[in-house]
Amino acid sequence: MFEFTKEQEMIRAMVREFADTELAPKALELDRKGEFPYELVKKIGALGIIGVASPREYGGSKAGHLPAVIAVEEIARVYPSLAFILEVTQAPLYMLENYGTPEQKQTWLPPIIRGEKIAAVAATEPTGGSDLATLNTTAVADGDGYVLNGRKVYITNGSVGDIVLVLAKTGERASILALEKGTPGFIVSRRQDLMGFKSGDVCELGFSNCRIPKKNVIGKEGGGQAVAMATFTVSRAAVGAVGLGIARGAFEIALKYAKERMLYGKPIAGLQAIQFMLVDMDTEIDAARWLIYHPAACLDRGMLPRDIGKLSARAKYIGGEVAASVTMKAMQVLGGYGVSPEYHLARLLADAVEIFPATGTPQIMKIIQALEIVK
Amino acid sequence: MPLNILVCIKQVPDPEQFDRITLDPATGSINRAGIPPVTNPVDRHAVEEALRIREASGGTVAVLTMGPPQARKCLEDALAMGADRGVLLCDMAFAGADTLATAAVLAAGIRSAGDFDLVLCGNESVDGATGQVPAQLAEALGWPRVTYARKIEIAKEAATALVEREIEEGFLRVEVRLPAVIAVVKRINRYRLPTIFGILEAGKKEIIEVGCAACECAGLVAEAMGLAGSPTRVAGVFQSHRKRHVEMIGGEPKEAARGLIRKLKEMDAL
Questions:
Q1: Least CB-packed of A250, B88, B129, B253 within 10 Å?
Q2: Phi first, then psi: what are they for B137, rounded to 5°?
Q3: CATH number of A119-221
Q4: Using the beta-carbon criterion (under 8 Å), do A10 and B202 form an inter-chain contact?
Q5: pLDDT tens string B219-270
């Protein structure tokens, strides 16, 4: 049977304690106000949570991808918005760490890992997100740099980001270019209002003749699509972990309520109608858990993104499913209180729904798996 | 001046899950099966205070616990917070100790582990909750002690510490010469969580095991350890069943207030 290492257990315990003491008292209010939690991002940076999978020479701890998934899960248990921010930040970190030049890494990785600077990846366009080959955003070579034009939508960390890694066509093929905040022509068109992820920052971005120096190309020119595909493959386990954390948070709320809520002189946890729901929730969570840890554990064992395509798509898919299913059941256990904001389940359900489109819809996740199963 | 500090910590059943503790009516023993062990909460504040003193004036921080092999976990947690090394006092001869025998073994363990300028403890454990060990430990070491410490300032030359000691309705400011045993209360500080880097580094730090033989070398006879060295005998254990009685006093506010006053007078509460 699979077992966590002592260090992984200690990381989980630390993040859980941080979530219970620092996040739980603030999460509802921050989500209600729609405030980006800058201070909490700095705190998770100081604890080493952002750089958990990053190299030590840039301030990370290189604990691994599985500890990163564990950290996202524990934070999502009480504050999914911050878990999304942490998960999304893993993508630019992965791009810079694996494809960046030493200078790019030295410039950008340490402040992102400390939580002092925020990073984003901009891939999705108004015409779609999963078909990376048909991009309308262009970066045309001009002297010692590129001129960037186009639009991106649903860009998490879009307006708060100090650095945005933009996928754009450079000639026939796509490249990744690092666009820094304050570059003339870089416009945040609007902050997009979503059903959940309320203290997150999801934006529509516009680029109008933005000049980007050549040294800001991440990886090879024309190699952007492969970099993006590898990055999304790696980050999907963490998206699944957001769902796992939401499901666990909802289950804990339902279980506590069922033990305390009296009906006919006894706690409702003694009623089979409630027990069956609790059993289903517990089973769904445990089943999803191992599917979500699996691709991360594979990466830590040295497998490459191309080896875990099916596993990570499945992890992301099941994360969304378990979050929505368990949260809905938890709401039924709580009856009328289930939809009341102070019991948190309405917030968790809204955040659960946000998992469906992240890094590709459930159907796209199935297509990725099918390609491998029927090949 | 740098100080060598040792912090005594204890592994206890998770107080968040004390409701799962049951008593065996036949033997009177406490069944804590299935309750995960954690570091005694106030002991984490003691570790934090030691780390703060080290950060301010240099020196080292060792952590020490007496317990079964699995008590190593609480040492590892303290090492992850930033302590430099751990000492595990582990021997069947230590089992069944009351506070006096515990203090005797702790003192012998401290002597065998090195020279220390300051020993910090949590004021009391959440399970035994006697609060006797820090004072008994100081006696066994022949050192002065301060309990209920809510603030500690080390003098520049590190010869004394100025300590604020909590008392009812206020505090005492006392000066104590070092080496000393100081037992802290929770309000002394807000303890840090270990960083992930600290967690990974903890595995590389040394934890030494000290058994009965080493304690004997430090001058403690075997008869003073464990059950044999414990004059305390538990006469009986019982579970208290607190019953609450609720009575709603209804009516208009004025009428309800009169009813409440009448009731309180009947109970001799007014």
A1: B253
A2: -65, -45
A3: 2.40.110.10
A4: yes
A5: 889 899 999 999 998 887 777 777 778 888 888 999 999 999 999 999 888 8
Residues 6+ apart with CB under 8 A from B52: B189
B250 domain-assigned:
no
B194 has a chain A CB within 8 A of its CB: yes
Residues in chain A within 8 Å Cβ distance of B20: none
To the nearest whole Å, the CA of A47 is away from the closest chain B CA by 4
Cβ <8 Å between A61 and B196:
yes
pLDDT at B11 over 70: yes
The ipTM of this complex is 0.91
Question: Which segments of chain A belong to CATH 1.20.140.10?
Answer: 225-373
Average pLDDT in chain B = 92
- Helix, strand or coil for residue A100? coil
- Nearest-5° angle of CA A85, CA A88, CA A89? 85
Q: Do B200 and A61 touch (CB under 8 A)?
A: yes
pLDDT digits 0-9 by tens, A145-204: 999 999 999 999 999 999 999 999 999 999 999 999 999 999 999 988 999 999 999 999
Write down the residue that tokens 């570091």 correspond to. B39
pTM: 0.91
Amino acid at A216: N
Fold of A225-373: Butyryl-CoA Dehydrogenase, subunit A; domain 3 (1.20.140)
Report the number of distinct structural domains present in chain B: 1
Per DSSP bridges, beta strands B3-8 and B59-66 are: parallel
